[in-house]
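Before going further, learn to read the protein records used in this course. The integers have meaning only within a learned vocabulary of local backbone shapes. To see the layout at work, look at the sequence and tokens printed below.
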Amino acid sequence: MIDFEIKARDGFARIGRFSTPHGPVDTPALLPVVHPDPRSQSIAPSEIVSSFGLPALITSSYILWRSSPLRERAEQEGIHRLLGVSGPVFTDSGAFQQHAYGHVEVDPEVILAFQGRIGSDIAAVLDVFGEPEASSDDARHAVEVTLERARAARAAREGLLAVPVQGGRFPELRWTSAAGASALGDVLAVGGVVPLLEQYRFADLARVLLGARPALAPERAVHLFGTGHPITFAFAALFGVDLFDSAAYHKFARRGSLLFPEGTVDLADVREPFCGCRLCEKLPLTEIGDLPAAERETAVARHNLWMCATEVRRVRQAIREEALWELAERRAAAHPALMAGLRTAVQGASVFLPVEPDSRPSFREVTAVSPDRPAVAQFRQRLARWPRLPGPGQHHDRVPLTPEPLGTIPTTTPDGLDIAWVIPSPVGLVPLELSEVYPVGAWVGPEEFDRARAPDPSDSANPHRMLTFEESRRVAAWTVRQVRAILAWEYPGLGAAVDQDLAVGVRSPKTGRLRDLSVDGASAFRVGNDGLPRPSWVGAQWLHRKVPAPSQRVVVQPDAVPFVREGRSLFARFVAGADPSITPGTSVLLVDESDDLLAVGRAELAAFEMVRFKRGTAVWVTAHARKPVPTGPDPDRDARPAES
């Protein structure tokens, strides 16, 4: 079984790793498609590995099987020696040839056994290719036959197995296929989508992925067949696609087309050496067209492969920065068809919410799709459940939560009734107390830089003048309301307890923003730029007393209790249970099976993922009884002793 481990993530997208007999695969990974006959390959497989930094390849076992000389050589030498590489080699089974030619000449048992004999690191089930325009009955037949073959393949193969996910354009069939594949496969390969990619039907592709995604097991690697153009990588990664296979680099080269993350350019139209990649610096695009045909095709293929490899690295960086949605929007802005796909994706935002983090470092508005990202859908969903404050009405104004303007606005009427202030924001009207909470407080959009906007009441304020007694009293009252609001927002299980033993809010002397909450004079919560309170050990103890189990808790198996108590982070395999509402980034209480508090930390996995993964960190410990520990991941402070 695959040993997939998540190292970093942004929603469904993840930086991960899993092992194969010929080395690890780091995801997201690009698997260049190579011809099984190296003589037919414009770029040698060994060059792809050494010069482009792409150690994992994919080839067609069916094409290899059909050629008697190649088949005999592969069976004698193995696929790795045949290709001249030592890293992981994946093999496809012939389903694409079935789509292209209408049939294949091999039985599924025969091609599976052949993949085993040649030493494929991941063998694929010969599925029934579900055409996008297939009827419901035909699509269901493809799903049923594919799963039947997958069950037989699982029984016959001990090594890693890729099980295709079919279902045509029918979401319910995609879900059924994904659930069945998840029970059998190590790699879940979403298939039947090549025509959608070739025809730029990204909206239909988004519907396929939205239908399959909820049923795809999180502990498996996800492969999207045919994702070869760099413009698609960020879009696919949003849905948690870990593996891309690219034949586009040489297919486009044959017709003289250059690939870029923003689209495709015909070599014949190039008049300027505008590409600055390392290959084009040595041989400018304007000179490639003058080469002999074979050399020209190879040069274009090298450029295309470099663009693909670079874009996958850019996607990986965006995941690490938790900025993948921004990258996907920038790519979608380059082509209306891809923008249509992204719009379809955000229409299904509910699919993303189980793994949507509670905050990110920032929220940059990129396109008209930005206000509909899952982060905004999550905020609006929670806001819809937010209790309205009692009072004579709601007030609307552009009031920042800093002392100067807060000192000028009342919190109550002369009769003592609370006044509810609701202010405009990019996501609509929000309570003033929540205006610094992600994504509202982290939002950076064009309005921030529009000098023609209406003046902000705080623009002319003097931040250095002394507040009057009445203004200071109002600031203190607003601080109390803000403290209550953000605690209740981040920890819904508090209920009425948020009004008891209330923590004292401390504002930054430079910015006036809330930065610290203290209980009995001790720092209990730090408030970051996302506006959310993160507990220290003091805060964790307070939460543990106020929030009833199982809310906000991750239960630690007995074997790992001593290590977590000492501040070592918790591996997924030692999770005994978790509050179902936990999403990545949530502050959680780590407790033993008797609900004794061990530590507090930040969730790396959603609750439903914690109980499924067998490798990797579930919660990074940020504070514990003996001493506080750093809030960020530290590979030297994990729970590895707990694995012994």
